[in-house]
Structures are given as structure tokens and as C-alpha cells.
Design a protein that fits this description.
It contains 6 helices and 9 strands; from the N terminus they run H-H-H-H-H-E-E-H-E-E-E-E-E-E-E. The protein is of the alpha+beta class. It has a 9-stranded mixed sheet.
Length: about 210
């Protein structure tokens, strides 16, 4: 008889439950955060009807890169490995006046890899983030291809000709347009080709010292 003390990897819902625990989100809120239309995708996993698909794992990993695709898909390895590591992001100054987030800067903002959520640069946002209740946060951004797949329902910094906007981005329709929305400002449809650059807001850090 063969005996083993090898610990069994966590099940699919156990892995989702771990993410809900550390983010403090409900299943519905977490689904929306990932760009899913509703939480039913996650509840099907809880009921044992589905596992974690590659698309779902990819969405989670894009937002929380410390959780590897291998762990998300199979449960093998350590959850959130490297959570104590840090990353030094280029700090580019005021989001409204800098030439472009891609231009970089001499300063660096050191944050935990967990808090960075895969961001590439950090910028100051003196006017605050719409709907977030943050007065002058620092935004952590990651550049995205406007023509590529996007995490709909999330906040983006959108650069258009002579214009820079913080807007929630959703699919505009079958014609490939993007719907830009902000509470109190209405919706705007723009062609993807008109977007000069697009930056996902990975996280917003409130400035505790003012």
C-alpha cells in the first residue's frame, strides 16, 4: 500500500474564494472587475459545474500577476507567491500635463508587486478619480493596445487627439467602437483608430499625507 503526505491542491472554487478573501470583493463585484458581464460565471464554479477556464485565469492574472496562470488553472504551486516583493515604477508627474505616460520620468514610486497589479508607470491625478472618493490619488497604469482585447467595465486613461480622459471603457457595438462613460458626463462613442493610446488603471493609491 502506497502512502503519501502530499497535500492536495485547492479546488477551483477554493482558489476563487482565496481571491475574494484578499480583494474583499463579492463574487459579483469581482466578476465586474474582471470585465465579465455577471457573477454567474463564478457561481457555476462554486456549484462544481465549471472549472476555471483559461480566459478567466488570464483575466485574473492580468489584474493580479502574482497569481500565476498555473496556480489559477491547476492549484499547483504557491498562491500569491512573491506578494512581499516590490517594484519601482517610473513616476511621471501630473496625468493632465505630462507629454505621455510612456515618456517616463526620473522619479520612482516603490510599491509592493501585489499593489502594482502589473502596472508599468505611476502618475499623479490631482482632480481625483470619478466615483472612487479619492481626492488626489496616484494612478498606476498599464498600456493596452486599443485594437486588442480589453477588460471592459474598467477605468482607463484614454488619449485622443488633443484630449486626455479618465473614462470607463465598454464595447460600443458591433462596429468595433468603444463606449467611454463617466457619471454625470454621459456616454461617448469613439472609433478605436481614433485612440492615440490607452492605459488601464490597475490601481489608485490615495495620498495619506497632503
Amino acid at each position: 500500500m502506497k502512502c503519501t503526505n502530499r497535500k492536495q491542491p485547492p479546488g477551483a472554487w477554493d482558489r476563487i474564494a482565496e481571491l475574494l478573501r484578499v480583494t474583499g470583493m463579492t463574487a459579483n463585484a469581482f466578476a465586474r472587475h474582471l470585465g465579465l458581464p455577471r457573477g454567474e460565471n463564478l457561481y457555476q464554479i462554486k456549484r462544481g459545474n465549471n472549472g476555471i477556464s483559461y480566459d478567466l485565469a488570464r483575466r485574473i492574472h492580468a489584474q493580479y500577476p502574482n497569481y500565476s496562470l498555473s496556480w489559477l488553472l491547476t492549484g499547483e504551486g504557491e498562491a500569491g507567491s512573491g506578494i512581499g516583493a516590490t517594484v519601482a515604477l517610473p513616476f511621471c508627474g501630473d496625468v493632465w500635463t505630462l507629454d505621455s505616460p510612456a515618456s517616463g520620468g526620473g522619479k520612482r514610486l516603490v510599491v509592493s508587486s501585489w499593489a502594482a497589479c502589473g502596472a508599468e508607470v505611476a502618475v499623479a491625478c490631482p482632480d481625483g478619480v470619478p466615483g472612487a472618493g479619492l481626492r488626489s490619488p496616484i494612478l498606476l497604469l498599464r498600456r493596452c493596445d486599443p485594437a486588442g482585447p480589453l477588460l471592459y467595465g474598467n477605468l482607463y486613461l484614454v488619449e485622443l487627439a488633443g484630449m486626455r480622459l479618465l473614462r470607463t471603457v465598454d464595447a460600443g457595438g458591433d462596429d468595433g467602437t468603444l463606449r467611454l462613460s463617466r457619471e454625470g458626463c454621459g456616454d461617448t462613442l469613439v472609433d478605436r483608430a481614433a485612440v492615440a493610446s490607452l492605459w488601464l488603471v490597475c490601481a489608485a493609491i490615495d495620498r495619506l499625507v497632503r
